[in-house]
Amino acid sequence: MARPAMLQSVLASTKRFLCALAFCFGLAASGQAQTTVALSLDEARAAAQQAALSGNFELARELAAALLQADPNDRAALIVLAAVEPRLGRPDQGRMAGARAWRLATTDGQKYEAARLAALAAANEDRLTLSQIWLRRAATVAPSPAALAQTQQDYAGLRSLNPWRTDIQLSFSPSSNVNGGSNDIYNVIDGLPFVGVLSGDARALSGVTATADVRLSYRLAETSQARTEIAGRFYSRQVFLSDAARALAPDSENGDFATTFFEVGVGHKRARGDAIVMADFDIGANWSGGDLSTPFARLSFAGNVPIAAQWTGSAGIALEQRWQGNSGQIGDVVQTLNAGLAYQLDGGAQIAGTVELRDTQSDSGNLRNTATSLQLTYVPGEQIGPAEMVFTLGASVTDYPDYAIILPVPGGRQDVTQFASAEFAFVDFDYAGFAPVVTLGAQRSDSNVSRFDRSAFSIRFGFRSTF
Fold first, then answer.
1. Residue 351 bridge partners (DSSP)
2. Element at 233 (helix H, strand E)
3. Which run of H or E residues covers position 352?
4. Torsion-angle region of residue 31: left (phi > 0), alpha (psi -120 to 50) or beta?
5. 208 contacts 257 by C-beta, under 8 angstroms
6. Residue 37: which pLDDT band, with cuts at 50, 70 and 90?
7. Among 54, 98, 240, 414, which lies 20 to 30 A Cα-Cα from 115?
8. Residue 144: phi, psi to the nearest 5?
9. How many other β-carbons are positioned within 10 Å of the β-carbon of residue 456?
10. CA distance 112 to 93
11. Mean of pLDDT values over 432-460
């Protein structure tokens, strides 16, 4: 099977490594099989390296094996095996030799050499995900910016070949309101004469949230114009209440505010001229406080197209059917329509705006609502200091026309929410291709039902892949 440029690149860099390691000497061939040549260990290492460079892989392997009999921890011999075993049809042996050489390495240069060889061997096994892991290891010890750039390029080449794709985001966030609780102790409803007192768990509780967001996809088919894949997502948000929150809501547990989300589906993307159109069908479920809340099925369509010199337009529509927990009874129906416009500024900066309309139909008047939201995003064209930045500003209006608390709320319930965030990805401090990300967030909601007057300030720490 023909190998991509990435594998040839790894092999070429391996050859350069071996050239640097090889002693400059000539080994005269006697031409007689019965002649025995006595070599010191250093001479045997040099001979093994020279044999690998000249394409005599069998001899290189025999010399390396002899060196390892003398010393099982001979790193130079392991490097030779890592280089030649894949050429002899034994890539698994080459990968294991590269892994052992990595463990025995004492310098970054030695580690980089071993990691690249292990990546090449794993790719020859068609274990592309494992090869990508080894390239990420190589990136942590790249001896120069050029070596790092080459490793990143090779990783991108493997990613395009690998039908599997994995994205993992982990973060934790101190927040002033981990449960979406009210700012006030009282529940005041405009137009109604009575005032309620909110329980502790309905008030804003401070603490820390920890989230894990894992996405897996497998490419089923791909051409130059289209791609079909199956994908899954698992999201979990766990809450850890502060001492102040526990004092305010002593009967509440951390798990009461935990949420989990899971979905799996199939998607198809196709190029139509300059436009890209997408269709997805997903099924999944939400859990709240450890209990199954809303299984769902969703069908969505989206697309984007260049519409002028620096303008790109996008639009999407989705229909989601929900069910009621474990009962299996049909629940809410959610319809969503969105449209966006992005403008590429001179210098690479981008500003984008999105408008979304959402309609939720439900048998429960307290859940039936319509919502309109607007979001603006600005991405500077250049890195500022050590960080790449993204700034977001937005607002939404949600109307619950049939909302009631004992009595119908006059005119229904209306919530107005404003939010803003600033994300800083410190790409200059990445490790294995993952950069630390800090996100500052603020949100405020005002409602004619004061139970839903709330605000939250948070700072989130996480990681983002840089290649």
1. 343, 378
2. strand 226-241
3. strand 350-361
4. left
5. no
6. low
7. 54
8. -155, 160
9. 20
10. 19
11. 95
The two three-digit tokens of residue 251, written as one number: 């009967």
Q: How far apart are CA 333 and CA 317, in angstroms?
A: 14
Cα end-to-end distance, the chain, whole Å: 26
Burial of residue 178, with CB atoms counted within 10 A of its CB: 0-12 exposed, 13-18 middle, 19 or more buried? buried
Q: How far apart are CA 128 and CA 420, in angstroms?
A: 39
Question: Is the pTM above the cut of 0.90?
Answer: no
203-230, pLDDT tens digit by residue?
999 999 999 999 999 999 999 999 999 9
- Tokens describing residue 357: 């309309």
Report long-range pairs for 374-382 (Cβ below 8 Å, ≥24 apart): 376/351, 376/352, 377/350, 377/351, 377/352, 377/353, 378/349, 378/350, 378/351, 379/349, 379/350, 379/351, 380/349, 381/345, 381/346, 381/347, 381/348, 381/349, 381/350, 382/347, 382/348, 382/349
372-397 per-position pLDDT tens digit:
999 999 999 889 889 999 999 999 99
For residues 217 and 432, what is the distance between their CA atoms, to the nearest angstrom? 21
Question: How many helices, marked H, and strands, marked E, lie in the chain?
Answer: 9, 18
User: Of 321, 315, 319, 323, nearest to 336 (Cα)?
Assistant: 319
Q: Which amino acid is at 121?
A: A
**CB 233, CB 243: distance < 8 Å:** no
DSSP letter for each residue of 7-31: HHHHHHHHHHHHHHHS-S-------
Tokens describing residue 459 = 């700072």
CB 432 within 8 A of CB 388: no
Q: What is the pLDDT of residues 83-126, one digit of tens each?
A: 999 999 999 999 999 999 999 999 999 999 999 999 999 999 99
Structure tokens belonging to residue 409: 């709320």
Q: Tell me what pLDDT residue 290 has.
A: 86
Q: Which two tokens stand for residue 282?
A: 């997903």
Tokens matching residue 60: 């290189």
Distance CA 96, CA 293 (A): 47
DSSP 8-state secondary structure symbol assigned to residue 362: -
Task: Give the integer Cα–Cα distance in Å for 336 and 300.
Answer: 9
